[in-house]
Every structure is written in structure tokens, then in C-alpha cells.
Model the fold of this input.
Amino acid sequence: MDPVDVFSVRDLRQRSGDLMREAEHGHLSLITKRGRPTILAVPFDERLLELGVHRTLALRLFEQHHLTLVQAARLAAMTAEEFVALLGAAGVPAVDYPPDELAEELTSAR
Done:
């Protein structure tokens, strides 16, 4: 799971370059004021233009393992089946097991 970078309002003065680098690499960032979340920085890219904020955010949070498939589908205002189709269109695997965990699941299924 990729961590979401957290920046305080004070940090922005000294770390604005870090925030921009993270956005350029497709990472979400959270900006806080007095320790409370205030702004979610979502990278601006083609996906955002094509799909809109909700679906792009759902895809990013799912890709970074912050949301389950069902949670991401809800955020995108889609059914799970529709979200799986969106994942396919975006080239994002719906199932992302590490090889050892996949082998364990296959063994259990037999």
C-alpha cells in the first residue's frame, strides 16, 4: 500500500516542491490544518479529464490499496461490476495478489 503523503499548511512553504513531485508521480497527498484534513490533492491528468473526480479518485485509491473494490465502486457511484469494467478499461488489475498469497489461495481452493 502506497502511503498518502501528508502536508501541513506550514509544510507547504518549505515542501511545496515535494508536493509537486508527488503529484507528478501520480500520488495523492493530504493537506492538513491544525492536524485536521483540509484538502485532498489529486494529480491532474488525462484520466481526471476523461473520467471526472469521483471515478479517478476511486481508481487511484483502489490502485494504491487504500480502498477495496466495493468501496471504490461506491465512491465512483458504480456497481461493483461496472467498476470492474472501468478497471479493465483503465488497465488496472481487479485482483492483485502477491505470488505467494495467490499460490496459497489456489491451494486452499483445491
User: Anything to note?
Assistant: The longest strand covers residues 36-41. The chain has a mean pLDDT of 88.
